[in-house]
Design a protein that fits this description.
This protein folds into two domains: 280 residues, no CATH class; 199 residues, no CATH class. The chain contains 16 helices and 20 strands. The longest helix is centred in the middle third of the chain and has 26 residues.
Length: 564
């Protein structure tokens, strides 16, 4: 029989969870509901130095909370940076390890930095500020100045000394006003700190407080507090200083998190997670939250995700309806899309992640350039077996033997609202096509399931069975059975700096009786991208809307601002 947890007025009642022990490439520590990020180049995971630990114990009676804080001898006694009250005694530093690649020194799991021309201080990450701050080990002083690592050095400096290089900026993306953009390096460091803190909370502090609880019960106990990754660090530090007593702030946060009418219940988690979203979506920061959706209660998680702007579909995948646009490389000409008045889903996208038919795209302008790069990426030969997106069965090249296909390669065909052509063994006309087109899809008010963010925030749903493509920065658009209207499609020119509506481009070509000739030359294998550029020029001269994406900038989905 499993022993019952000890009764305590400070502990919510927990049930023994069923732990998932399956392996997953996104879960290096599958039993820990913590923030984890793939280490960036040049970084290393910090470790506690044994000699430094023994030194601290020798000087502090094996209790780091007794560390004395004073000015370092040989340093100006009152530095003009507000750090004098936080500087450590020189005796403590004698055997402390040198700073690691991230500029941190460690003693018994605590983090210290060398402040240039001042001394060494204990630091903790302030998620609201997005920076490390000097702190008092005794918690008798309020947090001190923000500190930032000096470029190319292992030392740190107060924020005002490096303000021009490290100032926090507010993003210009529509809809994100007021959100702090934290440098990816700092988010990486903060995540490692939270990762370590959670491991130690589950394997040390909470184990000492409740020795009769199983590991799974300790996970559920920690989950019931609905703490952010940064609060895991804060809780670990507090329990190091005052073991076996759950701090009052944690109890108050737990109660506040359970109150659906409290508008502040998600504030701390929002401050830490919201700055991750765009960098992760855009691939400028590689990050995974290991079992994040299991680190807080489901009710709290759903409320938090709703605040971030996510919805959940029938496949249990997160989606948004406010993504301005996505990029797609495709062999179909703008004339075909215009004549059919739609873009139909392609052949090999299984059901799984979206509510209706999925059409894949990317959030990255740079990636769509790679996918449709002139001369570097040829069209998929499998797609060139179809003369039209309406063909239910593939054709055959002239001279090839008949292909008796017993069933359609298009698994969506029977469910489509569009009448498809059931002809078999027709001769293909586009098998020599040499290039693909780049399109931008207006996805406003459409269901968009983002790959990176579902791995970040919703990994358990993907583990169930929801299909997702393997390409980086992938997104799936949930299209109706009739596909995506051509009114939402924009053709990019060969410089990838301009785009015009597909309907306008095709209409311009057909009005001058050259559209069919241009398309035929494309299908025959001629690299006639310049002819499509000429049509975009004609659209612009006619005063029709043009979307501009100037060179010299990495454009992403959220950067798109559609012309009126």
């Amino acid at each position: 029989m499993r022993p019952k947890p000890p009764a305590s007025p400070n502990i919510p009642k927990v049930n023994s969870p069923t732990l998932d022990t399956g392996s997953n490439r996104f879960r290096p520590d599958a039993d820990l509901p913590v923030l984890h990020q793939t280490p960036l180049a040049g970084t290393s995971r910090p470790a506690v130095n044994v000699d430094a630990t023994n030194s601290v114990r020798a000087h502090a009676g094996a209790d780091v909370s007794r560390v004395e804080i004073s000015d370092l001898p040989g340093v100006v006694s009152e530095p003009h940076n507000g750090l004098s009250s936080y500087l450590l005694n020189a005796a403590l530093l004698r055997n402390m390890q040198t700073a690691d690649a991230d500029g941190f020194r460690f003693v018994v799991g605590r983090r210290f930095v060398d402040v240039k021309d001042s001394g060494t201080v204990h630091v903790e990450f302030d998620a609201g500020l997005g920076a490390y701050r000097a702190t008092d080990l005794y918690k008798k002083l309020p947090p001190g100045p923000a500190l930032f690592r000096n470029q190319g050095e292992a030392t740190w400096s107060p924020v005002r000394q490096v303000e021009s290089a490290n100032s926090l900026k507010r993003p210009g993306t529509a809809g994100d006003e007021g959100a702090i953009q934290v440098p990816a390096k700092q988010l990486h460091i903060a995540s490692l700190s939270a990762h370590e803190a959670t491991r130690q909370l589950l394997g040390d502090s909470l184990l000492a407080m409740y020795p009769l609880l199983t590991h799974g019960q300790r996970v559920e106990l920690l989950r019931s507090y609905n703490l952010s990754p940064g609060q895991h660090v804060q809780l670990h530090n507090d329990l190091m200083a005052n073991p076996k007593v759950m701090p009052e702030w944690a109890e108050q946060h737990r109660l506040r998190s359970l109150d659906a009418n409290d508008p502040t219940r998600f504030d701390r988690l929002y401050e830490e997670i919201q700055p991750l979203l765009l960098p992760v979506r855009n691939g400028t920061m590689h990050s995974d939250l290991v079992d994040f959706d299991k680190s807080v209660s489901r009710e709290y998680l759903d409320g938090f995700l709703a605040r971030l702007g996510y919805l959940r579909n029938a496949s249990d995948c997160l989606y948004r309806t406010d993504i301005p646009g996505l990029f797609r490389a495709d062999e179909r000409t703008p004339f075909e899309l215009y004549n059919d008045a739609r873009m139909l889903p392609r052949l090999k996208h299984p059901r799984g992640a979206t509510t209706e038919k999925p059409i894949s795209a990317t959030v990255s302008h740079k990636l769509v350039k790679r996918y449709s790069g002139r001369g570097s990426e040829a069209p998929n030969p499998e797609y060139l077996r179809y003369n039209s997106q309406r063909n239910k069965f593939p054709g055959r090249k002239p001279g090839d033997s008949d292909t008796d296909s017993g069933r359609s390669d298009n698994e969506w065909s029977d469910a489509s609202d569009v009448d498809l052509d059931s002809e078999r063994n027709y001769e293909t006309i586009r098998h020599d096509q040499q290039f693909v087109f780049s399109y931008i899809i207006d996805t406003r008010r459409m269901e968009v399931v983002l790959n990176e963010e579902n791995h970040l925030l919703n990994l358990s749903a993907l583990e169930k069975s929801a299909w997702f493509p393997e390409d980086e920065l992938e997104a799936l658009i949930s299209a109706s059975k009739a596909g995506i209207s051509s009114e939402r499609l924009w053709l990019m020119d060969s410089t990838f700096t301009r785009a015009a509506k597909v309907d306008d481009v095709a209409a311009e070509g057909q009005s001058s009786y050259i559209g069919n000739d241009i398309e035929a030359r494309t299908h025959s294998g001629i690299s006639n991208q310049h002819e499509y550029d000429d049509l975009i020029d004609a659209v612009a001269k006619a005063g029709k809307p043009i979307l501009h994406l100037p060179a010299g900038k990495d454009w992403f989905a959220n950067d798109i601002v559609w012309p009126e």
